[in-house]
Each structure stands twice: as structure tokens, then as C-alpha cells.
Amino acid sequence: MRTRPRWTPARGVVPAAALAVVVVLVTVGLARGLWLDNLHNGVLALACTAVGGYVLHQRPAHRQGRLFLATGVAEAVLFLGRQVGHAPGGPGSAWWGWLGVWPVAVVLALTTLAVLCFPDGRLPSPRWRPVAGLVVAVAAVCAVLSALWPVEYSSVDVVTAHPVADAAPPVVQAVWSAMAHPSYVVSQVLWVVAVAARWRTASPGTRRQLGWLLLAVLPAGVALLVGLVGWGSPRAGVLAAALVPVAAGLAVVHGQHAGARAALSWLSRARRPGGDLAGELTRATGTALDAARVVLWSGADTLLAVGVWPDPDADLAPTTPAAVHAVGETRDLVSGGVRVGVLAVEPGDGPLSLAQQRLLDDLAAQATLVVEHLGLAAAVRHRPATRPVPELTPRERDVLALMARGLSNTAIAAELHLSVKTVEPVVSTVFGKLGLQPDARDNRRVLAVLAYLER
């Protein structure tokens, strides 16, 4: 069953409104004169906001897009505040100058989180959560100190007076000096460490996206070096840094396209005799769609899980099409006018985009071929409704009933208080009585359950 992608504010109104606000803020700031030392903030504001809007349009509710958008808006406020604070005029100049100083810590924290979470909007691993929490905490303390006292005015060439306090107490200045500037250096080191950590455990698709990011960093680094050597100023490198969010946004969106091509070509690459085609299909689908879970179900009125990604802790129990269609995105697998299964996807970050919907349609067609290849489609369509089931012993019936509930041999042994070595021969006997011989093309466990359900 195909569902229409839900409309979300993040897909349309919010990114468009944010971009409009940022354009106005940067335009008003530039109208006050061209201050080269502050120009990079305006360029970064436009780049980050445009990239964030583009990512959210292509992939609604994507966390990385939200981080880009928030960073762009904060940069725009910082840019306009510094423009006014550097060349004051009119009412409220002191407050605008104030807005050009204390959000520096906020912008740095957002940038750091964007790097830590690139490209999927998630941290490299749960072990990074304390690091992200520390980044946020330090940024909050620095922002509060700067908002209440003029601890950083002298270093940003803002000539307006601090609107809250004339000077910072010695203890505040000491805390600021111990936290602020060291945190700036540590944050940049974290960027490198996070990218390296992500690369070490990343899939080929994620490494390709990281490669796009690194390719954008290279010209920015060259510009920085040339500027320092040739003109004694880092301005060229700082301006070229706007290439980095642009490359990152393209990697997030078009990395999906690379994943789509890999997903659509997985069948031609999965040629191992007796390979787990169902598992490989669900893995390819989940990777391409950034899904939380993908399940390939086989059957008509009763569905049996023949492929699950990621690997579940326990076997999934048989279910019905109605129950599967009630959750996430689903596609019925139809062969000869008869439903032979369902491909079910639980999206990871909001609803699937239109491009992802089309990709899921193509993958569902491949899933139909996989189900037929396993021989399950024929079992569902052609088995006689009154086909007799050989007589089983009470123990064999108990084992088959637990198999129908989706239990593995280990779980069956625990349920019946037996050892696994006792259960395995019983399972083999059940297969033999049902006439299910070992065959790489068929899933004997599922076929046995189908025979049980017929009873």
C-alpha cells in the first residue's frame, strides 16, 4: 500500500521563512557598509541556510538539515549585530552590537554539532553523547557570560557599549578566559576526531559522503594557507569555508542517490549460491532509505518474516497484512494478481521523500522476485487448502506450534525446558515428515509453518 508523503512545515514554510529572514538580515547588514572582517559571517549565513532548506526540501525532517538551518540563522543574527556594532547609528545600536558578540558560542556549538552528526544527523556512536552534552554546556556558559558582561567586546571590534554591564568582575573574566578560547580550539580538534571516527566505522556510502566534505575542506585550507603567506590574513580561507556546508548539503542529498543506485543493483551483485537474498534486500533497502527497520514479509492472508534489517533480537511472529500496513511505509508484493508478500519500511527521520517513495516502488518489484525465488510465492498460491499434514507426535506438534510463533530453536528449547541439542533433531524430524528436504532455494522453516497454518 502506497501512502502519500505527509506535508510538514519543515519541508516548505519553515525553510523558506528562515531563508527569507536570513537574506533580509544579511542585506540590511551589507547596507551599512562592507566590513571584510565580518563578511564571512554573512556568506556562511546564506550558505548554511540555503543548504539546510535544500536538504529539508529533499529529505523532510532530516536532522542534519535542521542543524544547517539553525546555524545559518544564528550566523545571520551575528553578522547583522557586528555590522551595526562596528558602525553604529540609530536607536538600538547597542543592543544590535550585543547580538553580534554573545551568539559566537552558540554558532560554534551548532557548527560543532553539525560536524559531529554529519551526514545522517546522528552522532557517530552513543559514546559521543557526553561529548555533545559537554559542547552544549560549555557553549551555554560562555554565551551567558558574554551576554551579561563585555568579556569579548575588545576582540571583535564592536565599538558600541555593552547594554547590560560596563565591565566584567575579575572572577567572570577569569572563568571566561579559562573556558572560551580553549573551547574554540578544542571544538576544531573535535571536528577532525569526529570525521575520523565516523570514517573508521562507516559504510562505503557514508565514506563517499565524507569524501565530498573533505574535498571541500581542501580548497578552503589552500586558500587559508595562501592568504596567510601572501597577505598575512586568514580572510581568504575563512571566506572559502562557505564551500564546506555547500558540499556537505550536496553529500547528504545526492549521497542518497548513490545509495539508490547501489540498492537497485544489489541483485546483480548478490550471486552467492544459497545466499540470504531476503536479508540482503532488506539491508540494501534500509541503507538506501535511511530506514529504522525494513521487513520483507511473505504470504497472502498470514505474513511470515523472511528478511529483517537490522537483525532482530528475536524472530518476528506471523502477522496480518492489515497490521503491517498500519505502521510505516508498505508495498504489497503481487504476482499473477495474487499478493505474495509485503515490503515494510519504518522511516528513520520523518516521512519518505518523493524520490525515496519511487525508490521503494522499484525495490518492491525486486522483493517480489526474491519471494518467488525462495519458492514461498508458489507455496502460498498453489498449495491445496485441504492438503493433509502427516501425523506428528505431541512433542513435534509443540515444536511446530512454537515455530509458528516465530521462535528460534534456542527460544523453543527455553520454552519447553529442553536443550537445544534435543530440539534440533525434533525440528529435523518435522521437516522430514512434511517432505521438506534441504534446498538453498527454499526456507524450510517458513514452509513448515505454512503447513501448520493450513491445519
UniProtKB/TrEMBL annotation:
Transmembrane segments: 12-32, 96-119, 131-151, 171-197, 209-230, 236-253
Every HTH luxR-type domain range: 385-455
Record flagged with keyword DNA repair: no
Record-linked Gene3D superfamilies: Winged helix-like DNA-binding domain superfamily/Winged helix DNA-binding domain (1.10.10.10)
Pfam families cross-referenced by the UniProt entry: GerE
CDD domains from the UniProt entry: LuxR_C_like (cd06170)
PROSITE patterns to which the protein is assigned, alphabetical: HTH_LUXR_2 (PS50043)
Coiled-coil blocks: none
UniProt entry keywords in alphabetical sequence: DNA-binding, Membrane, Transcription, Transcription regulation, Transmembrane, Transmembrane helix
Family matches, as PANTHER family: DNA-BINDING TRANSCRIPTIONAL ACTIVATOR DEVR_DOSR
Protein name: LuxR C-terminal-related transcriptional regulator
